[in-house]
């Protein structure tokens, strides 16, 4: 038989105080919760709901999985998926190693370190829309700076954005230029956190600078590389602004630049097909989710 | 006295109530409600306050002047303007109309909105007022006619307010330097191709690289192709509602048009496909002889630089009936949910007045839509506007119903494939036809 034991008055008072404090904190957090509910949870739910309707914004008809069937059966969707992955893959493949090498070089110098950091980081703080407009002129096939430099060096020039075969590489160049400053800054932060004692000990053992870089620096950078890879993939899969400036919603020429988000824009705002656009949005969300889980497993990065 | 008055007042009040209940509802709705608000949604660079144009340095009177004039004509009415930019105007208008935010909407995409049942049919208002539609330039009222959700025939859901047209423009100075005859007023595709070829290469006078022709890629590819096709007397297809539409994207005329564009692409800057290469067009250092599918926006910079003699305007490619190129511009429509439809109709009538049309043209450079504008001194002084006004009356109307939907993007992508050599002409048009038809069928 259990007997109820009443808590002493001072314990009860302490509990009340704790409860009050908790409620107060939740009251302070309430505006944030409301904001999240209105601007994140509701739009996500609404987009998911809309993907099962044929909707032009005002008139909605339930169509079940028909939008998904239509999207998955269209070559334009798979072309957009291919373009998105192609650009993101080569951007990461080139920007992360180049950024790391540059960061290692900046880390070794003693003078003008901050100047180089600022110089490399400047593109990253530039608006991608403005950068894309400038790159349109840099990559202009006849009078653009890039072909002028290639021509001066005796190298073969390219039609860049004017040919579906080379247009994606024009975008890759732009994205590397824009993102590399971020890679350098993140790598530098990790490089400066590696214990100098490791290098001192290896010097005593007779290791060369190259050996130190391969056997001390690179293994200690794993976490940073994993972080850059995951963040790079997520932003790469959401690519839109620079594509829209360079090739419009249709990704001219001949859909060679159309990414998944550009396709969402084209179907949603170019033709009042909000159900189709929402279905592509849900598919994009699933692709990013699955790919991020895969990347987390691959890189063993702990969140 | 009081005893007699009270029953009299009660009887009078009851009689009035009964009488008002018996009155037909249309009559009470037919009256313009005074002491009320009217909201007008407009799109473009218009401003409520006075502004100075950065190109011409000319001052423009703000829309407050229109507000004052309309309120003067309708005492007790308060008019409000909501002005949206051109970017994303479709979703912006959709959001506004879904939220019943305005009574009158400037609506270039009237077809899509009328089909959703969001607009008020205007024919009853026109009949009621015996409104004379012939004040508008020929072709414009017909051009904006469309289907509502329950219509069997096309109906009037909007009336023109801003004019626009597509046309061909050329550089007279380059023609003289190359010793080529100026373009005729109604050039054929063959004439343009021959002359473009003659003027591509090193300019015999200046020694500069010249390009014979230019048309913009990206969003304009499909529209330029459609106009070239009309020049070969072809038709994009038939029908106006999606269920009635049959496309002719793989027709013989479309093939001829795409082949002509491919040939012309060798007389153009390489970067035309993504909208570049015409940076010097309409300037004194221009290097392009002919430009097709041009629009009204060209007029301001030409006159601001004093180049009006150098860049004459001729008509776009026309079919054997003298019709060709995209119908464009903007009309005004009344939202179905407007609480003040009669007053909204009054504003639409006001928008066709000489005052409002002159205001739009003389202060903001918008092409007038009324016939009498041809006689205005301000139009006569700007000679290039005369062929532009003519071009408005010979455009394809009602406008291409596929121009704001998937078939346009499909046709654009396939045409660009052929222009960049990744698809053959036949393959590109066959795929465009097939994909567009599948899209229409699956709607």
Quick take:
Chain A is mostly helical.
How would you sum up this structure, described in words?
- With 303 residues, chain A is mainly α.
- Chain A is flat, with a radius of gyration of 26 Å.
- Chain A has a two-stranded antiparallel ribbon with strand order 1-2.
- Chain A starts with 8 loop residues before the first helix and ends with a helix.
- Chain A has helices at 9-50, 66-72, 75-108, 113-125, 128-138, 145-152, 167-193, 196-204, 209-220, 222-237, 241-247, 260-269, 274-299; strands spanning 53-55, 60-62.
- Chain B has 443 residues and is of the alpha+beta class.
- Helices cover 40% and strands 13% of the residues of chain B.
- Chain B contains 18 helices and 14 strands.
- A 5-stranded mixed β-sheet of chain B has the order 4-1-5-14-6. In chain B, strands 8-9-12-7-13 form a 5-stranded mixed β-sheet.
- In chain B, helix 10 crosses helix 11, helix 10 crosses helix 17 and helix 17 runs antiparallel to helix 18.
- Chain B is globular.
- Chain A binds chain B through residues 56-59, 70, 76, 136-137, 140-142, 159, 161-165, 167, 246-250, 252-255, 266-273, and chain B through 88, 90-91, 94, 97-98, 112, 116-118, 217-219, 221, 269-277, 404-406, 409, 412-414, 416-417, 419-420, 422-423, 442.
